């Protein structure tokens, strides 16, 4: 096994096999894992908000679905990914508050999931699988060697997507 590379909140990292990318504690944030199965170039984005155009302080590209996904693709291409082969797996976007709300500010998780999907579709990237929503946090690992997306949640069985 290679190096375990941590991705912080509003952060992104790319790697090649045999390294593993991990991000802790996805609540309403969404983890977008991108993978080229041939070159085994992998990328993981921990996005916090759906749309950079709605925010004044938006210099951090990784904070938003729109700019984060574009930047992740760009960095993967730099280390050898082929754009036409990149596929996506996504996790997170939990509704961390008990009340079901129509208030957009409380629907951050849901909006993050929608924005991640929209931006992946716009980028012609196929979403293979997702583990999103519900009301619990997730820690994820993307294994560059296999493309396995491992999801850990407190009190839940380990999932490999």
UniProtKB/TrEMBL annotation:
GO BP annotation list: chemotaxis
EC number assigned by the record: 3.5.1.44
Domain of life: Bacteria
UniProt xrefs under Pfam families: CheD (PF03975)
Gene Ontology MF: a single term: protein-glutamine glutaminase activity
Reaction equations catalysed: L-glutaminyl-[protein] + H2O = L-glutamyl-[protein] + NH4(+)
Gene3D superfamilies in alphabetical order: 3.30.1330.200
This protein's UniProt keywords: Chemotaxis, Hydrolase
Coiled coil spans: none
PANTHER family membership: CHEMORECEPTOR GLUTAMINE DEAMIDASE CHED-RELATED
Task performed by this protein: Probably deamidates glutamine residues to glutamate on methyl-accepting chemotaxis receptors (MCPs), playing an important role in chemotaxis.
Family: Belongs to the CheD family.
HAMAP family named in the record: CheD
The protein's name: Probable chemoreceptor glutamine deamidase CheD
Organism: [Clostridium] fimetarium
Gene (UniProt): cheD
